[in-house]
């Protein structure tokens, strides 16, 4: 069984290029720092350039900062257009929570639009240059809800912040399942994997809409959760470990903290029919498609 006890155990990454969305803080920053320390050229794809530059300044190795706002499809397209050369690792890490109903520049519910649709578009636009893996960071919050493909933006339902967040995280997993299916069908050597950090104290503000719950989580996190480095272990395992395509990595100790290993996903995250429905919806909303030309499998 693949296990990653610390970032120091990941293999040498010299000569590889990794893109980490949301790499300016939290788990993204820890992930980027670990890859850069092992020799990778790391691109921090971040909305806040000042925060990104400050993060890059504290990392060893070759790190650059580029603008990316996942809540704007025009920004996603610009990022993809301006990126040259092969990409060994695309780490779809950035995420947002919102306690109220808000929308992206393109009119999508903000959590689904940022956490899933922005990454969906980015992946499709870069996939002809990806030569290694696409890693998408999810959360065990996906277990708290279901995916409503008929009302993804909560236009006909009363808005519920935490289920909306869970829906976006479930979409991350269903996206990984369908992406791997398409890559395999195309004979591609690229793998799609997913990771969840467990309970990580990273400064990520939980805004479920329930003040008591949010306060409890804020007070408990420093006592129970692991930090950004621990939270990055599942992402790093999914990115460079000996794991199969379509797999989910997570903490080994009750799914909360500890060394990273391959985790068991709930059945709702492995529903091929719903994954295909989500893919069709995401293509229509973002105007991006799985590229016909993908890298062939290595003999």
TrEMBL record:
Q: Which Gene3D superfamilies match?
A: NAD(P)-binding Rossmann-like Domain
According to the UniProt entry, its GO molecular function terms are: oxidoreductase activity
Q: Which Pfam families match?
A: adh_short
What is stated as this protein's family in its record? Belongs to the short-chain dehydrogenases/reductases (SDR) family.
Its signal peptide is: none
Q: Which UniProt key words apply to this protein?
A: Oxidoreductase
Q: Which domain of life is it from?
A: Bacteria
What is the protein named? NAD(P)-dependent dehydrogenase, short-chain alcohol dehydrogenase family
């Amino acid at each position: 069984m693949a296990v990653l006890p610390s970032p120091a155990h990941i293999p040498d990454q010299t000569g590889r290029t990794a893109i980490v969305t949301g790499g300016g803080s939290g788990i993204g920053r820890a992930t980027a720092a670990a890859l850069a320390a092992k020799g990778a050229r790391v691109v921090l794809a971040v909305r806040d350039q000042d925060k990104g530059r400050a993060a890059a300044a504290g990392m060893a190795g070759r790190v650059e900062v580029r603008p990316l706002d996942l809540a704007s499809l025009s920004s996603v397209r610009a990022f993809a257009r301006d990126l040259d050369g092969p990409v060994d690792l695309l780490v779809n890490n950035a995420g947002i929570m919102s306690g109220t109903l808000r929308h992206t520049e393109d009119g999508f519910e903000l959590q689904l639009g940022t956490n899933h649709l922005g990454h969906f578009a980015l992946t499709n636009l870069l996939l002809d240059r990806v030569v290694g893996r696409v890693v998408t960071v999810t959360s065990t919050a996906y277990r708290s809800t279901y995916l409503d493909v008929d009302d993804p933006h909560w236009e006909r339902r009363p808005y519920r912040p935490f289920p909306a967040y869970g829906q976006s995280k479930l979409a991350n997993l269903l996206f990984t399942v369908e992406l791997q299916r398409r890559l395999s069908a195309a004979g591609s050597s690229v793998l799609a994997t997913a990771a969840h950090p467990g309970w990580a104290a990273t400064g990520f503000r939980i805004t479920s809409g329930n003040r008591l719950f949010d306060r409890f989580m804020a007070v408990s996190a420093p006592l129970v959760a692991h930090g950004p480095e621990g939270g990055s272990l599942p992402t790093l395992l999914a990115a460079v470990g000996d794991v199969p395509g379509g797999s989910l990595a997570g903490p080994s100790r009750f799914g909360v903290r500890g060394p990273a290993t391959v985790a068991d996903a709930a059945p709702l995250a492995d529903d091929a029919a719903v994954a295909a429905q989500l893919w069709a919806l995401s293509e229509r909303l973002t105007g991006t498609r799985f590229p016909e030309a993908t890298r062939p499998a290595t003999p």
